[in-house]
Amino acid sequence: MKKVLCAVLVVLAVAGCAFAKDFTAEAQDAGARRRVWAEAAPEMSAAFGALGKAVLKDGAISLKQKELIAVALSVQNRCEMCIMAHVQNAICAGVTREELVEALEVCVLMGGGPNQSFASIALEVFDQFSAKK
What we know:
Layout: H1 2-18, H2 23-40, H3 42-55, H4 63-76, H5 80-92, H6 97-131
């Protein structure tokens, strides 16, 4: 029985490697989709962009803290495009892997298993985007 279980785990591990996402390429695709949307709805896109600029800056709480909140809400909403964008912004704002993990732990506490699944995506995005630097 142990041999069968070990064999199944090896197969799953290899399969997991084969299906790993390249989030750098995914982020490029997401950017292209956002540009298409901006062309289709320019006024709304400009207004939404202005809202983001008004909110995502240092204030009573830092940009770094705001990006951690944005990542957490992206995980909660199960939005991979949002996770990629806000993890990238969080890295630029100076968020460390440890800070991200702690914010994601709160996400998992509040949202359970589904949030854990998307928290693992956020961590993988962080690792891939950080490796580029």
